[in-house]
Amino acid sequence: MSQELATLPPVGESINSTAEAISAAADEVFRLRKICKHFGTDPAVHALIDIDLTLRRGEWLSITGPSGSGKSTLLNILGCLDSPSSGSYMFEGIETATLGEKERAGLRSRRIGFIFQSFHLLPYRTVLENVMLAEVYRRHTLRQRRERAMAEIDRVGLAHRAEFLPIRLSGGERQRAAIARALMGSPSLLLCDEPTGNLDSRNSESILDFLSQLNGDGMTLAVVTHDQMVASRGSRRVDMRDGTLSERVDVAARPHRLVPPQATSAKLVRSGITPPDLLAEALAGMFARPLRMALTVLGIVIGMAALVATVGLTRTAGNRIISQFDQLAATELFVTARPGVATGTIDPRAIPWDAPDRLGRLNGVVAVGLLSDVDVGSALVSASPVMDPTNQSAFKLAVRAGSPGLFRAVRADLAFGRVPDAGHSTRRDRVAVLGPDAARRLRIAGIEQLPAIRIGDHLHLVIGVLRDVVRKPELLGSVVIPEGTAKQHFGLLGPGTVVVETKIGAAYLIAEQARAALRPDDPRTLRVQVPQEPRRVRDEVQTDLNVMFLLLGGLSLVVGALGIANITLVGVMERTAEIGLRRAIGATRSHIAAQFLFESASMGIVGGIVGASIGVLIVVAVSALQVWTPVLDPAGCDRLGVGGLSRLARRPSGTGRSFASLAGACPPRSLALLFRAPPADGLLATGLVSASGCQERRSANRKPLRAHRPWPSG
Q1: Measured between alpha carbons, how far is residue 239 from residues 84, 225, 332, 347, 367 in Å?
Q2: How many contiguous H segments (helices) and E segments (strands) does the chain have?
Q3: Considering 531, 556, 591, which residue would you say is the last residue of a domain?
Q4: Contacts of residue 208, Cβ cutoff 8 Å, sequence gap at least 6
Q5: What is the CATH number of the domain that holds 68?
Q6: What stretches of 504-642 adopt beta strand conformation (E)?
Q7: Residues 442, 553: one domain?
Q8: Range from 90-99, 138-147, 314-323, 401-410 that averages highest in pLDDT
Q9: What are phi and psi of 133, to 5 degrees?
Q10: How far apart are CA 91 and CA 189, in angstroms?
Q11: Given 531, 552, 579, which residue is the final one in a domain?
């Protein structure tokens, strides 16, 4: 037992050795143990190999070595910008290898200052703003930040240049401003990367003297340099060769002055940025390069305007085409007599002469007319009283009798003249209207000379010539006379066909009611023909239009997105130095991404609003020029990423009304901006419909059609 006690050191010596170890640890700024860093795996590039290095407070460590020896990699690890592949890096008693990105950013933001060869002063910020930038990621108040920045600027002798832009400073003054930024917050270590590399000899000497003064005041420096004169200023010097470190003993180096250990907190504060600072940095970044910002916004405006205009014009044209199908296919029906079951003959008196009045009382009927074939036997139609043996002057033309409402029911378009009215039929006037083909064969080009034609021996005055008809194309080559005239001179016994034009969607309902309205005593004697709706063709056309809409809209979106992405990428590449600076002063990748996203989002919102407005104006202008109803489909816009238009259109006040007022300013035919709601919302969900469109859709959705009696009483 006594022998064991004899081998133990004295109590005083044990306490002294423990105190010395604690003091040595407190005196160290950082300690590297077996630090290795390699890049890649096939094969791996070993940038640092088993680096052991300790730096005490108040030392000036000069790191020298040729290019490619690993100096920059070592500097990145010392500045907590990168992590070692293996080994231990203790900074003021904190193991940095186990820290997360925000903890490492907080450590370098508060305890490490960076001085660069190229200064890295933001050119659009004043000296004061550049120095204040060092505390942006420390969540300090603006007033305290300004006071500390002015104190550091005064310390480096640039108080009279605080409001100057870097472009107005000399090289030495720029480096002094960068040193002031690095000194913000009293860091424990200054990492200097070739601090005099871009300076002349006079400014280099001035900067080195100032760094010596800082070191004399207790600041710890680690300087990477190729300049032997700069390296000789340090109290220690190490050389890097092929990733390895060797200590160099320099007799001329000035001795290290002991600095009392500083009280440092072992608690790390994460790096962060407040929303006001994020907003200020984003706005400053955008307006720092106004031309680039303008080009970016212009690209967004062009892309969004092209997208909205393409969507709107395609939908407008598609709506125009589909509406033609709806108006023609589902708005007409024809009533004729049915052959008898027993005799197989048609009763010429099956349709009453007052059929237009009876059917006109049904809700949903727009126009009704009677059309009958007139039997003129072998009589020819001629216009010239002179017999010309070289040219034919008499023709076998179809003669038909029509009621006054026939021309409206077939949507006749007059080239010149007029159509017969009820008075012509009542008086049995010998007047006629010619189809364009019949007029051309009879060589009648106008009615100024009161031309007349002969139907057999009967002379008829031509009062009008048709240009075209939408229904019953056989009228284009016919001679049309009044019903009363046909009854009086050609023995017409009854109408042959009833032509009915209905409102959109009412044709089938009117067809159910027409026979009872015309012949309540025997509806089976009549046959109602409703043309089959070309649903298949309509659906195919609709599908093709939708595909074209998606392709054109998608193409516009892709082109715009590529243009915007290209401009944004160029902008980011132009700011790589700024990104590196922000990373050095404490920004994390998420902080950089948040700032760039905020800038892009701000420019995107402004450009999107302006571009969408221009696109809407283009749609309205083209539609006004073509006398169309402009259509912007929110459902289609949602599929292409413009869903805001849908919500905008459904809003009952504010911006929604501004679109309505914009549409009301267009001159032709009560032109309005129609935002088509999805089917579940109904046709009139938005209320932004033109007067004519509103009337057509309201009539199509009515249900009182079935509430009417099948035929009028009395």
Answers
A1: 19, 10, 98, 120, 103
A2: 24, 24
A3: 531
A4: 195, 196, 229, 230, 233
A5: 3.40.50.300
A6: 526-529, 631-632
A7: no
A8: 401-410
A9: -60, -25
A10: 10
A11: 531
Same-domain status, 251 and 224: yes
Residue with tokens 């050191």: 9
Section 176-186 average pLDDT: 91
What type of residue sits at position 352? P
3-state secondary structure of 463: strand
Whether residue 79 contacts residue 241, with contact meaning beta carbons closer than 8 Å, is answered with no
Q: What are the distances in angstroms from CA 349 to CA 354, 375, 495?
A: 12, 15, 7
In the chain, the N- to C-terminal Cα span, in Å, equals 139
Window from 89-103, 447-461, 541-555 with minimum mean pLDDT: 541-555
Residue 298 is assigned to a structural domain of this protein: no
- Residue that is written with structure tokens 């890049």 in the block: 39
> Coil, strand or helix: which one is 55?
strand
CA distances from residue 673 to 38, 175, 628 in whole angstroms, order as listed? 64, 61, 10
Range list of β-strands (E), 329-457: 332-337, 365-373, 381-382, 394-395, 398-402, 413-417, 431-434, 452-455
Same domain for 555 and 681, yes or no, is yes
Four-CA torsion 625, 630, 636, 642, nearest 10 degrees:
80
577 plus 686 within the same structural domain: yes
- 615: its two tokens: 């696109």
CB 270 within 8 A of CB 103: yes
Lowest model confidence (mean pLDDT) among 355-359, 370-374, 523-527, 639-643: 639-643
For the record, the structure tokens of 327 come out as 């108006």
Joined together, the tokens standing for residue 489 give 């001179």
Digit-coded pLDDT (tens) for 642-652: 444 344 334 44
Q: What token pair was written down for 137?
A: 């990621």
Confirm whether 709 is domain-assigned: no
Q: Tell me how far apart the alpha carbons of residues 65 and 328 are, in angstroms, rounded to a whole number.
A: 88
Q: How many domains does the chain have?
A: 3
575 and 471 assigned to the same domain: no
Contacts of 408 by beta carbon, 8 Å cutoff, 6+ apart:
367, 369, 501
Percent of the chain past pLDDT 70, that is, above it, reads 79
What is each CA distance from 625 to 323, 549, 622, 692, in whole angstroms? Answer: 19, 21, 5, 18
CA distances from 78 to 54, 142, 165 (A): 11, 29, 31
List the structure tokens of 308: 């909205």
Question: Residues 579, 607: one domain?
Answer: yes
For residues 502 and 102, give the distance between their C-alpha atoms in angstroms, rounded to a whole number.
73
Q: What φ, ψ does residue 81 adopt, rounded to 5°? A: -85, -15
702 and 509 in contact (C-beta within 8 Å)? Answer: no
Query: DSSP state, 93?
Result: T
pTM reported for the whole predicted model: 0.58
Token couple for 404: 């006054």
Report yes or no on 288 lying in a domain: no
Of 49, 72, 35, nearest in space to 244 by CA = 49
Q: Read out DSSP for 679-705? A: GGG-TTSS----HHHHHHHHHHH--GG
Please name which of 633, 332, 574, 576 lies closest in space to residue 471, comparing C-alpha atoms.
332
* pLDDT of residue 712 exceeding 60: no
Residues 543 and 460 in one domain: no
- Show the domain range for 525: 332-531
The owner of tokens 């002057």 is 393
Considering only CA atoms, which of 246, 230, 244 is closest in space to residue 62? 230
User: Do the Cβ atoms of 571 and 299 come closer than 8 Å?
Assistant: no
Same domain, 426 and 541: no
Q: Is residue 510 part of a domain?
A: yes
